[in-house]
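Could someone model heme C with this protein?
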Amino acid sequence: MFFHRHPLIALLSVTGLVFLPAAVNATDLEAGKSIFESTCAVCHGVNGRPDPDSPVVQGLGTQPADLSDPLFNSREPAGDWRMVIKYGGHAMGIGEKMPAHKDALTDEQIADVTAYGKSLVDTSAYPPGEMNLFLPTRTKKAFPEDEVVYKGRYTDQAGENPLKSVLEIEKRIGKRGQGILELVHVNDAAGSELTDVELGYKHALSWSESHILSGAVIFAAPVNSGDSDGELQTYLAYGRKFSPSWILQSSLRLKFPMDKASDGAVELAGAVHYVHTPWPRRVFPGLEIIAESPFRSRNGDVEWTALPQVRVGLTRGGHVALNLAVELPLSGQSWDNRAYLTLLWDFADGSFFKGW
Ligand code: HEC
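Reply:
Sure, complex below.
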């Protein structure tokens, strides 16, 4: 067809900017059902729940995934399932007992059986795993998940050169919530100390297959109570997928010091990532822009920064990943540059040591 051949359209579809309707074939659930029953049910069970008494299941030595569990089913993006079904568990960093089907099934059949697998249980009350987007450096993430994150920030600032380390433990609560615990440690010219403990909760407010919006509240308590009375933070986080290749995340955060809320600040952050391949163990470029301003802003108080960065998937399934970023001041900051190293482990996808 003309549209496919036009070089501009071809270029745009390669970069993922344009999706020709023809490229997205509607999946056939009936076909998916019959493939599932003939090919997958022997291990996963006819309804998606593996039968523990089946000799095949017992012989595997690894429990096949329970596709009828709504939390498991919802938090896994369909694209990841297609990869696992096509290339097998080993290629995607899970057990090798999940066989590859690339010789037995066409891409279309894999899409059909994935769609059927996704339809085995009603997941409408759970945010979809499609919206579990790459963790940016400063922009807040909307998806509620199970994750441990270490974030180190080195600031190039004459005489002080502080290294701030944050350990975040995030745990999914129920269908759409997430608990947050953060420990903040600072090492600078004045010494080394644990400065804050932060406790919070995030709640997914609205979502679809292409967007998610969440709200969160966090209380930051200083460890040394002489320092301050602490700070209350609240944010809205929004994630959007424009295509499989382009994702945008943004957040609006308000910080209220407990002793004087009007001395707080507002931060607006945005991040774009280019997801050029469905293989997770790759390097993905991203760019963030941050604007932060005190509530009582005078002219020129807004601090702008840019953070070019890369996401580096470390495990075959990408559940352990690095993010490396530099932060460049675009306005009159007191520091020169910053460098960030973020190591994240999505523990819903298994142990830290799995799938390297
Ligand atoms: C020989 C048994 C077997 C067959 C046949 C099989 N699977 Fe699996 N499957 C497994 C096992 C075992 C796991 C869990 C691997 C692990 O977590 O280590 C698994 C995992 C999965 C997962 C979870 C992937 C993830 O990211 O955790 C999906 C989805 C899946 N299988 C779908 C299918 C579909 C669809 C078919 C048929 C086309 C199929 N499987 C056929 C054994 C099987």
